[in-house]
């Protein structure tokens, strides 16, 4: 099954790299703050959509999407994606959760939160995100946004498991 995130255990890490163990706590924050770190984070996490070799929009965590009204987008999520949280979620070592619509809702809401994200202004057109079923989300916009898919395809729009202890990670 595809993995949305992975982590090397401290025991398996060479001694000289053990001081970098905090990277587990830093990398998720790059979703909201990244600039030069986005290419690195992109090797660990994925967004709903991505850019292909010719810069066309291609499926990533969303296998398909459709604009069902001028201000409504529907995204179908890829089945079988497992997040790997290492030991970040207490009592759930290793693969901690399957990707679901709640993760998308939670991640995009974090990006939209101006107190949490420097990128909140990019998603002001989003009014709300609706969980339709475990593998479907619907984004309701305040007004049409022709750039929405492009914004969702950039490095700071990655989707994370909603179970991560974000308060601890932010410190």
Provide structural commentary.
- The chain has 171 residues and is α+β, with helices and mostly antiparallel strands.
- It has six helices and eight strands; from the N terminus they run αααββββββαββαα.
- The protein has helices spanning 23-26, 30-33, 38-41, 101-112, 148-152, 166-170, and strands at residues 49-51, 57-59, 62-69, 72-77, 82-84, 95-98, 126-133, 136-141.
- The strands form three sheets. The chain has a four-stranded antiparallel beta sheet with strand order 3-4-8-7, with helices on one face.
- Residues 1-10 and 16-33 have low confidence and may be disordered.
Task: Describe the protein's topology.
Blueprint: H1 23-26, H2 30-33, H3 38-41, E1 49-51, E2 57-59, E3 62-69, E4 72-77, E5 82-84, E6 95-98, H4 101-112, E7 126-133, E8 136-141, H5 148-152, H6 166-170
Antiparallel strand pairs: 1-2, 3-4, 4-8, 5-6, 7-8
Q: Which overall shape is indicated by the principal axes computed on the Cα atoms?
A: globular
Order of helices and strands: HHHEEEEEEHEEHH
Rg, please?
16 Å
Poorly predicted ranges? 1-10, 16-33
Query: How many helices does DSSP assign?
Result: 6
Classify the secondary structure makeup into a structural class. Answer: alpha+beta
Assign a percent range to the helix content: 10-25%
